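ok trying this again, last paste got cut off
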Amino acid sequence: MPKLPVKIVHSPDAIREAGTYVIKKISPPQEGPYGQSVTITAADSNKEERIIRVPYRPETSDKSNLGRLVKAFGPDTDSWSGRSIRVSIGEGNKRTIEPVTK
């Protein structure tokens, strides 16, 4: 059997608990099983990295997770690092992301 040219990388666990997280980095939109999404890597209060995928559409509602973030932080995701988000978990494990602005 031939060897597979595979590089295994560590991927943080998904955000599964409500709380406040600090954004570390944003990955550009990528195609996934449910359409395009951006991946936000954020740290919890214990500084453990977690990820959350946010559906991406070039035109989005200001009531969507992505719309709220862009409205509060601006469209340049490079400037989102260090900003805080509050994640809440609703029915069916639906995650709602609110930007923390002061």
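PB: full thing came through this time. The beta strands are 19-32, 35-43, 49-55, 84-89, 95-100.
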